[in-house]
């Protein structure tokens, strides 16, 4: 709840700073062609992410077909977008797959590793691009990323020093991480899939930038897009909204393109993202209907025995 409120507060501050015009410009820029492009890019990104998840899950002993993974990933993205917190969909797919595979802990680890690797690859790409193409952002963003890395390392070391039990747990999880992506071939697949996902998101934001009327050279656009995308990972947001719009306004202002243009592009990106995960709603409804039909088709005697078994 606190994170959601913080995200709302940031969004209100952005509106107070630039007004409602950028958001209205974003909404007025939506058209069928733009939606089609966003849906295609989202589909490619979803398939790549689902392949990444399927690969890691298989390594951890909870086999998952790519086709099934794509359906669950769409549903996960939809829930992450519409439910505050941004992780409900990931929890749901971990639990669902864990129940189906009969191994909830390994299914949960597969989801955590998959999402973590994706975020790390995105940050690594952002750092490389900023070093070579984003000189105007280096003085702020690179120190921020460096401080974040130091804090993460300190948190890990502090946890390890707290108790022997914590150290055993960390060694166990590191072993699971090695099992999930330890093979060079698997690591390459996971990195390639992550690069495809990031590339599709960058392309979607680039389309949004063009749609709101800004003309930005491709390499400069890549740097701006990665700055905005990394800010969208800050866990103080509402379905991705909040810090992303604030950072987009700052980054575009620094680049000489105007804060309102950055906010408009980020807002349009958010709208396109929400539309692009709409297939997840279809998957969620279909899954609910199938479960209801399966339940109604189960003979009453079987249901009675099952309930007795659970209570015993």
From TrEMBL:
Annotated transmembrane regions: 30-51, 116-134, 140-164, 185-213, 219-238, 250-275
Keywords on record: Cell membrane, Membrane, Transmembrane, Transmembrane helix
Domain of life: Bacteria
Location within or outside the cell: Cell membrane
Membrane topology field: Multi-pass membrane protein
Protein name in UniProt: Uncharacterized membrane protein YbhN (UPF0104 family)
Pfam families linked to this entry: LPG_synthase_TM
């Amino acid at each position: 709840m606190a994170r959601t409120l913080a995200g709302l507060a940031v969004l209100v501050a952005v509106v107070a700073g630039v007004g409602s015009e950028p958001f209205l410009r974003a909404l007025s820029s939506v058209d069928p062609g733009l939606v089609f492009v966003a849906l295609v890019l989202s589909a490619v990104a979803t398939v790549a992410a689902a392949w990444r998840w399927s690969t890691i899950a298989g390594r951890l002993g909870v086999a998952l077909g790519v086709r099934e993974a794509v359906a669950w990933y769409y549903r996960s993205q939809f829930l992450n977008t519409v439910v505050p917190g941004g992780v409900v969909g990931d929890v749901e797919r971990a639990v669902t797959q864990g129940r189906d595979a009969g191994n909830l802990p390994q299914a949960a680890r597969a989801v955590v590793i998959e999402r973590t690797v994706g975020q790390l690859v995105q940050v690594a790409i952002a750092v490389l691009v900023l070093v070579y193409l984003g000189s105007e952002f280096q003085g702020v963003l690179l120190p921020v990323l460096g401080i974040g890395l130091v804090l993460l390392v300190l948190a890990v070391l502090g946890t390890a020093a707290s108790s022997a039990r914590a150290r055993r747990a960390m060694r166990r999880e590191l072993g699971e991480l090695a099992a999930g992506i330890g093979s060079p071939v698997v690591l390459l697949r996971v990195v390639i899939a992550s690069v495809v996902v990031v590339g599709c998101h960058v392309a979607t934001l680039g389309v949004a930038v063009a749609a709101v009327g800004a003309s930005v050279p491709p390499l400069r656009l890549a740097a701006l897009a990665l700055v905005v995308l990394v800010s969208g990972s800050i866990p103080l947001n509402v379905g991705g909204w909040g810090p992303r719009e604030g950072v987009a306004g700052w980054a575009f202002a620094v680049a000489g393109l105007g804060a309102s243009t950055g906010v408009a592009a980020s807002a349009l990106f958010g709208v396109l993202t929400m539309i692009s995960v709409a297939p997840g709603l279809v998957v969620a409804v279909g899954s609910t209907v199938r479960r209801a039909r399966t339940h109604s088709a189960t003979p009453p005697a079987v249901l009675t025995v099952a309930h007795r078994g659970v209570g015993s």
